[in-house]
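Issue: copy button drops trailing tokens. Both records pasted manually instead:
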Amino acid sequence: MQYSFAARTKIMLSSPLHLMRSLSERNSFISLAEELPAEELFPLSSLEAAAAAVISKSPTALQYGEPQGYLPLRKWLAGDWRTFKQIDVQENQILLTTGSQQAMDLLARVYIETGDTVLVEHPTSPGFLQILKMQGAIIVPVEGDAEGMIPENVVKQIERCRPKLLLVSPNFSNPTGILWSLERRQQVLSICKSEQILIVEDNSYGDLHFDGRTEEDFIERYPSLFALDGSGAGDQVLYIGSFSKTVAPALRTGWAAGNQSLIYAMVAAKQLADWQSSNLNQRLLHYMLESSSFDIHEHIKLLNREYETRLKLMLELLKRPAWKGSSFDAPIGGMFVWVKLPEGLDSIALLKCSLDKGVSFLPGTLCYAENEGKDSIRLNFTHPGRDELLLGMNLISEAITEFTARS
């Protein structure tokens, strides 16, 4: 499907997410809709110290930087991945971006032409869907199950439509929270290698896991597709992610890593888009990561302990009578619970009622390329505090009860 400029603009402005973001500026509004971490867990003291040190150290921090990103930060990423993620890349294989969303946008600019087919998970990230639609891609969903994308379905769609690339998030997919098994990762990678189809692997949520495993054990059991492909040596995977979910979204620092030629093409596109992501933010982040007073891996452990508590609270609240007839699979990581509503309940109608009560969630329709998802919603459990989460879920329960009472 191709879109005119007017149609593409309508896609952006008609989204219920814009309304929810406007309403969320009210102090009393509770958002369970957005992809936000907990503000009270931001490492404020480390951020303040880094900002003061970086600005006072040299005025070049306020100058333009390299389009590919601050070299010391790229070197830090390469070293950290080598130690903790079984990924062995050089700094010239990494592009620093303004979040993972821009990484996907830049890839779309240089790799996707109007009419190209892209395979996606079913359902998939609403932000990435917007990018693909704006680029004029034909979006084809691939059905999966609790272990990830089903290989037979991947083969079927490849034979049917010869796609340009496959977009996946094996670690706690947005919105479902599914964690792919190792076998599925190997099978899907093998299929795409044999058919020479590029995989874009989004790992924005991969550090947020609550299964009790250490970071090392988790990576051993669930290596990234990028690592399985030889960290870019196989030329089959572009690995994207960001620090938004683990440090702070406002730093707007993400990355793309992969084949050097593809990265350089994305660097050229970035120069046209905005020349560079914030040099100051990248230097500030690098200072923090190198500081003896801040350990990002310990910080992530803190996040995981608190997010696990909030997830357990949400799962308990979903057992209350108002949610009878709904269904969901409890994730062991990520930021979301994906809920199928009781039969006959429409997510958009429920959202309108919930907004009137002062709470929002993401309607499932935004996670599908076509007119699907009216019976599903995505709930974020990481942003609201425990009291807010309790109140927000109670307000949605009230809205559900009002609808079911009418039927």
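Record 2 (pasted manually too):
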Amino acid sequence: MLTGCTPPAASGPGPGLLAVLGAWTWLGVDPADTDLAHLLLAHPPGQTEHDTAAAIEGRMQQLSAALGGLAEPQDPVPDLGERLLITDATTVLLRFHGTRFGTRLPVRAGWTQHVRDRQAVVVIGLDPLPRSADLARVDAYLDAGLASGRLLFGIARPT
């Protein structure tokens, strides 16, 4: 019997989950009307009978935990620390605890520069959203998620 020959199981999200996530980035403002970079992560609608609403929510809660724990809309927004690895103006990775994998974000140079100089608010949606969602659909998703408490928030900084 062999022991100690395999690395310990990762506690964070696996590459399969990270590969299916939808990610949206944009520049907006915070409640004080200050410029703020935003990042939304959402799971696409289920493809199999294993992708129930509860399973999808559980996966998104796992992502929240792997970022250090995000807050509900009414709670103070936690600082998640240095989570954004900027390699160039159009390549930014979101890193998670417990895994060597990250999620490449869809970014533009202006978003990246803002994050490099400041930070970004990370929003995790607990309900599914198609990866093909356009701006109007994302806005409706955010409005519904805020109203129902189905969004989690944190602040991430560049490494």
